[in-house]
Amino acid sequence: MTDSFAAVPLRWVGPLLLSGNVVEGEQEVPLATYETTLWPSVRRGARISTLIEGGIRSTLVDERMTRSVYFELPHAGESLRVLREVEARIDELRAVVGQTSRFAELLGINSQIAGRLLFLRFEFRTGDAAGHNMVTLASDALMTHLLHTWPELRYGSISGNYCSDKKATAVNGILGRGKNVITEAIIPREVVERRLHTTPEKIAELNTRKNLVGSILAGSLRSGNAHYANMLLAFYLATGQDGANIVEGSQGLTQAEIVDGDLYFSCTLPNLIVGTVGNGKGLGFVEENLQRLGCRDDRPVGDNARRLAVLAAASVWCGELSLLGAQTNPGELMAAHLNFERNGTSA
Amino acid sequence: MTDSFAAVPLRWVGPLLLSGNVVEGEQEVPLATYETTLWPSVRRGARISTLIEGGIRSTLVDERMTRSVYFELPHAGESLRVLREVEARIDELRAVVGQTSRFAELLGINSQIAGRLLFLRFEFRTGDAAGHNMVTLASDALMTHLLHTWPELRYGSISGNYCSDKKATAVNGILGRGKNVITEAIIPREVVERRLHTTPEKIAELNTRKNLVGSILAGSLRSGNAHYANMLLAFYLATGQDGANIVEGSQGLTQAEIVDGDLYFSCTLPNLIVGTVGNGKGLGFVEENLQRLGCRDDRPVGDNARRLAVLAAASVWCGELSLLGAQTNPGELMAAHLNFERNGTSA
Amino acid sequence: MTDSFAAVPLRWVGPLLLSGNVVEGEQEVPLATYETTLWPSVRRGARISTLIEGGIRSTLVDERMTRSVYFELPHAGESLRVLREVEARIDELRAVVGQTSRFAELLGINSQIAGRLLFLRFEFRTGDAAGHNMVTLASDALMTHLLHTWPELRYGSISGNYCSDKKATAVNGILGRGKNVITEAIIPREVVERRLHTTPEKIAELNTRKNLVGSILAGSLRSGNAHYANMLLAFYLATGQDGANIVEGSQGLTQAEIVDGDLYFSCTLPNLIVGTVGNGKGLGFVEENLQRLGCRDDRPVGDNARRLAVLAAASVWCGELSLLGAQTNPGELMAAHLNFERNGTSA
Amino acid sequence: MTDSFAAVPLRWVGPLLLSGNVVEGEQEVPLATYETTLWPSVRRGARISTLIEGGIRSTLVDERMTRSVYFELPHAGESLRVLREVEARIDELRAVVGQTSRFAELLGINSQIAGRLLFLRFEFRTGDAAGHNMVTLASDALMTHLLHTWPELRYGSISGNYCSDKKATAVNGILGRGKNVITEAIIPREVVERRLHTTPEKIAELNTRKNLVGSILAGSLRSGNAHYANMLLAFYLATGQDGANIVEGSQGLTQAEIVDGDLYFSCTLPNLIVGTVGNGKGLGFVEENLQRLGCRDDRPVGDNARRLAVLAAASVWCGELSLLGAQTNPGELMAAHLNFERNGTSA
Question: Could you list the residue ranges forming a coiled coil in this record (chains A, B, C, D) (predicted)?
Answer without folding.
Answer: none
